[in-house]
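INFO  loader      accepted 1 record
INFO  loader      residues=156
INFO  predictor   begin
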Amino acid sequence: MKLHILAVGHKMPGWVESGCQEYLKRMPRELPAAVLEIKPEPRAGGKTREQLMAAERSRIEAVLPKDARLIALDERGDDLTTARFAERIERWMEEGRDLAFVIGGADGLDPAIKSRADGLLRLSSMTLPHAMARLILAEQLYRAASLIKGHPYHRE
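INFO  predictor   done
INFO  writer      dumping tokens
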């Protein structure tokens, strides 16, 4: 099983890139993870928000791993504790399907992506910049993998 973070956005600042890479390289062999950056739709030309999201949806769908469980990051998604997140990932591991976590662009995710998703996940009730969302997701995936492998969790 592989974990994919599909993120719409431009090249991130170095601190985000290095932070994500640090957490992803720590992932166990049986749960490798990677970030795939998806080019956002250019905002020039008077395109509507819906047109921008639809164009980004097409790019997301083009790189979405076949048969992967799709989890869309959304402010109205499930609000999970780290322990519950780890439990979900462990349950999904039993199915053997890849997991694809999708972070939308500046305008969010196209409704068609959210409706086809196998689940919606909220990282925080606060608004996060997309760069922080990538980094927090990478850290939480690493923390969940650590819990699944039996490493103690400091809150228990």
